[in-house]
Design goal:
Structural class of chain A: alpha/beta
Oligomer: homodimer
Largest interface: A-B, 69 and 69 residues
CATH architecture of the largest domain in chain A: 3-Layer(aba) Sandwich
Number of domains of chain A: 2
CATH topology of the largest domain in chain A: Aspartate Aminotransferase, domain 2
Radius of gyration of chain A: 21 Å
Shape of chain A: globular
Chain lengths: 358, 358
């Protein structure tokens, strides 16, 4: 049995060298006599792994000193609640609704204060990201929330809105895939299971002056200040997830870092979009200006043909190409761990399928 | 390098057959062409793993149909908040304070309602569990919370309190180590990293009639009803953690189930306590009646000798015997995955150390 090319939106393909290292060391890590899964999170053998992961992420993203880096649980969705609970001092916030997760984030925050959706592409099935020029920001808003890449619809922000409130960004499906100027954000958070590691982990990068304002009703474990003071270990963190994330960070550094990955990701996305723009059978669904480099969405316009394609592709070792249940069609998620060779094989397969189904 | 005997209180030793299977299948699981870490949580290949884990846990603990079984994130600590947020309809609850985690659970619940600590052994450094006969329960309390085994102090409840309110039990350090009559509880919850699997996972067993009463301010992901309706997958769960938990459940079934493990655990604990009761050098710290079978705490009475013992034991492949920083001394955590041979080796080592340090 060979390994497949896995185009899943998340959990998704991991880099082979990461998996190979994890496999080799699974029973005994280094000279510790135990698996990483068996290590006390307070032991030096584990805090070394943790500290290295934090240092490598800081290095990869050039995270300034005035930001904390936390490894939390609950994925990005838990932060949909934690964000208002930690930041809503004035009890009002702005949201841009550019996709399903952006929408859910806004809905959840209504539990804790006044939420103004200042721009939305919901009426147009999120085929684009709302224009960020000329937006009316709410006076005294505690923050402005965006979802920088929309996994389901295959779109991305091509520029950032210029609010005076801190920018809070769900970067789950684009973190580490392109350079980000961290200083432009108040908070960057990302579920790990797309570009970082296994699920059950959320990376949170928060400017230190935003800590210390949590509501009294904020569950202690969701309070960022509590976790910052405890180095993400107010209680036992997801130790294995952090370890695999750390191996991924090391792999990214060996690959040349984020700038190099961005080049490769632009190349991968171009291979697919160039083919789609010239195809007689497949059509891309996202507006050209806002096309995601991580999630490429497309349709044939015929649900039966879509299903036949997904099935045939799986037979050829190209799996999880089915689009999200809410939109149908196809989606190829091509995160950092998807090599150029995987995308080339997919394009070749699509060409062949087109020829046979013209 | 050999594997050590790891007496860590958690994360802790895992069963070797579990680790070996995880290692073998790490790159490619069955005929899926991918690692379990790479599987979409909504794919059939993964939901099969999930469903089997739930079924095996139900089987092992004889969980009645009227209970939901959930695999959540955030460890037991997150449930310290989720419990009042889900159950405090009358905004009052009873707690028994039998140790550090019991205390933290009570403290956190004060954020959401009136908390009555109806019994406590805190003044006596938690050397015993408070007597459960003759307690004054609060009229109309939403629940009574206990921590059935106290990891730090090495004590356990030897009988359950008889409140008319639902019994909510933190079973983190004793679940699956002895038979539990699930029908006597309203909620059983347990961080996975002691008797179940890796950290970053919490098992929650909840009687169905207790769902649906969450406060409006309850974060959506902490709402048990939301997670019950979504089969623990309102968002992406800790897929790897659940997989390893499932392998552990299969191993426990091969070992003969919980009844058989209980016998082995009684034997392991007796080996240590019998030695300690007759030692000239080491003294057990927990009151005999309330001795834990999972965490055996002891001291020499001399901090330097304690430190020398811990260091020498580590040199002999018996690691993580240092007691919790709040109490000092030593602690041997002997969960299901610690074989009798490991305990015997520890006792032999203690005898030798005693001879050399008499």
């Amino acid at each position: 049995m060979d390994r497949v090319y896995n185009f899943s939106p998340g959990p998704s393909q991991l880099a082979l060298p990461v998996l190979e290292k994890a496999q080799k060391d699974l029973l005994i890590y280094g000279d510790t006599g135990m698996s990483v899964m068996e290590m006390s999170h307070r032991s030096k053998m584990y805090t070394d792994i943790y500290d290295q992961a934090v240092a490598d992420l800081r290095d990869l993203m050039a995270i300034p000193e005035e930001y904390e880096v936390l490894f939390l649980q609950g994925g990005a969705t838990q932060q949909f609640s934690a964000i208002p609970l930690n930041l809503m001092v004035n009890k009002k916030a702005d949201y841009i609704d550019s996709g399903n997760f952006a929408h859910l984030a806004a809905e959840e925050s209504k539990r804790y204060g006044q939420v103004n959706v200042i721009a939305s592409s919901r009426e147009d099935t999120y085929a684009y990201v709302p224009e960020v020029k000329g937006l009316s920001f709410t006076e005294g808003a505690d923050y402005l929330h965006i979802t920088q890449n929309n996994t389901i619809y295959g779109t991305r922000f091509v520029e950032l809105p210029e609010s005076s409130a801190p920018l809070v960004c769900d970067a789950s499906s684009m973190i580490l895939s392109e350079k980000m100027d961290v200083a432009r954000y108040g908070v960057i958070y990302a579920g790990a299971q797309k570009n970082i590691g296994p699920s059950g982990l959320c990376v949170l990068i928060v400017r230190k002056d935003l800590l210390g304002h949590a509501m009294e009703i904020c569950p202690k474990l969701l309070n960022w200040e509590v976790q910052a003071k405890a180095g993400s270990m107010y209680n036992t963190p997801n130790t294995w997830g952090i370890y695999i994330a750390g191996l991924t960070f090391q792999w990214l550094k060996e690959m040349g870092g984020v700038a190099e990955m961005e080049k490769i990701n632009i190349e991968k996305a171009a291979l697919l979009y160039d083919f789609l723009d010239n195809s007689q059978l497949f059509k891309p669904t996202a507006q050209a200006k806002y096309r995601s480099r991580m999630n490429v969405t497309f349709v044939t316009g015929d649900a039966e043909k879509d299903a036949a394609f997904v099935k045939a592709a799986a037979g050829a070792g190209l799996v999880n190409l089915k689009g999200h249940r809410s939109v149908g069609g196809m989606r190829a998620s091509i995160y950092n761990a998807m090599p150029v060779a995987g995308v080339k094989k997919l394009v070749e397969f699509m060409k062949q399928f087109e020829k046979e189904n013209a």
